[in-house]
Amino acid sequence: MEGKKFSQVGRSVTRIDGPAKVKGEAIYTDDMVMARMAHGKIKRSTYAHAFIKNIDYSKALALPGVLAVITGEDAPNKWGIVPQTANEVTLAVDKVRFHGEGVAAVAAIDEETAEEALDLIEVEYEPLPVLLDPFESMKRAGEILIHENEPDNVLHQGEQLFGDPDQAFAGCKYVLEKKFYTSYVNHAFLEPHSSLAHYDPQNGQLQLWSSNQVPHYLHRQLSIVMDMPMNKIRVILPAVGGGFGGKGEASSSDFCAALLSRKTGRPVRVTYDRNEVFVTNKGRHPCHMKMKIGLDQNGYIQAVDFDNTLDGGAYAGWGMVVMFYTTSMIHLPYKVPNARARVRRVYTNKPTCGAMRGLGGVQPRYAMECLLDELAEMMGVSAYELKMKNAVESGYRSVSNLHVPHTEYKKCLQTVVENSGYLEKHGKQPFGKGIGLAGGYYISGTAYTLYLSYKPHTTVLIRVDTEGGVTVHCAAADIGQGCNTVMAQMAAEVLGVNYEDVHVVSGDTELGTFDLGSFASRVTYASGVAIKEAARQINDKLFEVAAGMLSCRAEQLEVRDRRFYSVFEPKKNIEWEKVVDVYTNTVGTLTGIGHFSPPRLKGIDLTRGERVQGANIGHSPTFGFSAQAIEVDVDVETGKVRVTKVTEAGDCGQAVNPMSVEGQVEGSIMFTLGQALYEEMHLDKDGRMMNACLHHYKVPTVMELPEMDTTIVDSYDPTAPFGVKESGEGPVQPTIPAIANAVYDAIGVRFTELPITPEKVLKALKEKQGK
Amino acid sequence: MYLDEFEYYAPKTADETFELAGRLGSQAKVLAGGTDLILNMKQSLLKPQCLIDINGVKEFQGLIYEAGKGAVIGAATKISELEHSAVLRDKYFALHQAARELGSTQVRAMATIGGNICNASPAAETSSPLVALGTKVVINSAAGERELPLEDFIIGNRKTALEQGELLVKFLLPEPAPQTASCYTNIGLRNAMEIDAVNMAVNLTLEADNRTVKVLRLVMGSVAPRPLVSVEVPALLVGQALNSNLIEKAAAAAAGEAQPISDIRATAEYRREAVFVLSRRVLQEAFNAAQEV
User: Which of A59, A147, A671, B289 is the most buried (most CB within 10 A)?
Assistant: First the structure.
């Protein structure tokens, strides 16, 4: 085990991207202007399900200032983040499957002309029945199919069996089964999608600037849609105003900009309006779940049975992955010896669901943490005691073969219970006031690429020379989460320099070395491994030179505070720059390259040793944990729930930048508090979204911000680079069930459907009084 | 998203404005804060050929209070000015509260009280307190001036009594009688940037005994096409010494009078429930405040 003494890691240093953003100087894609740049706009479907009989864009083309119009026929190649299920096209071909789907796109000399041209495009539709409910969609599949090659209107269904849950339930003293429903929500990131494409007809090279969090996967999809080799395409991320999963795949704006640029020979920019962000969605899957948990007489979990129908919307997107994540998430953070999951991801004529912060975890976590709360009550013990009893420990291996190398989950639970006074408050406050406890965890990186490949998931190249000092190259995506800063801190740590000395070149598929992207809370861990390896190569070479200059042996040297020291005679030391200067003068620029390949574990049922379908999904090099105690005030006359205080404790391993961790944790809580109490997309019966704007889609404001008390528990994962784990998706997990459990504590009603609106609360209170 | 082309006029005086409004007639819309108008234009719900920007007309702006006479508020006065006015907080508390609740800080910096009223949204924040306070509006045109009680000015959902060429130029708030207090309350999903599911204002004057209701107005917003002035609540309470029993009865009466509809924000049933709770609370609050005047 390596030491925990750090000088650059573990400091709340100023974010590299901070000052420019605060001053309004950061350049986002929509801020970029190029010579002869044209503006693209997308014509959107006015039906949720219809055949396209004809598209006549002759009048649009004739409008002065219009440069080109494209339709689905211009790019029929299907794309999708999961290649096995790729079924999206840039613009609809023959058929539209959700209200707002793109049917044509226009490039014009300015945005106003492009918008005017959209009105001149005539689309003739033959409407089809609109399926908005997943159960209706499955039922009516014989009569109407959303995708011709998906016979049951189901993208995929899966069944996983681990151990023998039926037998285990038979021996349980306490068994509880309930249905839960989670709502249809969107990320509501601040910066709408924006894409600027520049196709150069002279060299056949395409450059795309995009507001995206997975430049590599975007790169790949562009290659497919554009029918161009990847080495002719370069993807660059300017500043990105948040993603939360919603930019975790390509967007039609990327393809339309690229196609229109190739067609017009000009740079083309496509920026979405907020309503386009909503109607193209890719937010969290609404889940219709049934969960059953069985405990033995001592309160130990014996079995979990989980049934989930995911309302996927019109296309596949991340759907299959999300579906199997929901099954994987029942195996932690408690020891579950027997489990079964039956899940299906259903097509409906809604804007497609996709990846959203803590994907696949939030829904089953809500069910599981609420059930455990109720089971504790059945047993007459506190939820704290029940959760502590079942919590996983370092080295735990789930029956599904998930391996947890290190965890401080129990410490998280203990800390929140102590800091919040949970045991003193729970069940003891006046009617209307309540406190709820919940825990959760999330992956810290994945084990597999989305397409079949064995290549490393991240490569970091570090370049050192007298001109640039230290430059870290990696095509990771800083979407506001701060990975550029933590990468600089980690590189500086190993190289013995200050983080301010490190330049980070990221978000560029040409200048940066390979990285899969910012999703699954993977970048700190993955880049950390690669940075360590690359930086050590640099140190090895510099140590030899420094040793010569100091007349000692290289292995007797250490580097810190920008100096090389002899560990035996610290007086023997020399400035880091002088050594670099000598190295550069004699050899030239110095480079080191490091890679990260995650450990791979097979998703098997350990009791039988058999492979289980989809069970590779959910494996991770390590896991982050969070526990929350949330206090609410319920206005029992109006039904309004106000979250007054959130006490959180999280295990993110060694925090590289504690200030960034705090931001992630507080942001996670507010993000999810919105889904618990306020946010929901509403569609009318024709599938048209009724609140596709931030005025009517209710993201919590600063007025809803509760008091927050968050703790980074002392933790260090010895298997992780610098001891790190994730911190941006674990804290998302406990918020909803902690609120639901708090509401129960306050008014004695368990809410199993989101969001918990004043209207639902009041109705439930009346029903309770009636009884 | 993009606005259609329009002619833009920026008069400097009231007379100039009336002349323009008379000449341009129904082709023109008045631009004050623009927080409703521009939004509607961007969504192509309104397509005026001309805009008359009245922000440069000094006569339409500002709040003047004269002890014993009451307050005069120019139609183009920004909500933020009202929000921060000490005299409003002291004398017309309900309007002060409503101004604080309207939109966001940014919206309040742009929006005007005249715009909030002329837009005539059933969920408007300022109409309930203004009606409760007995406000009259002054309407002007090149042809002359007329006055109307505010409740007669707002005639329906997004409909006002303005004739072609007319502008709402100011609000006249009577001097509050002794032992008077006013209060405002609202409910929506969030506590800011909300369109009210229900709002409500009450203006209450007590007799010298400090217990008996002398005059009372209770006005509900967002539960009818226009501000709903309760008839039954004053009928129950005027002349009575207030107590919680009576307040409870009055609240039930208010809930009975409400004519709510179901929409994306709330069901009719919930709104009626909220009217009951809010009117009880706001009556109690006003009663307590009036006793302390």
Answer: A671
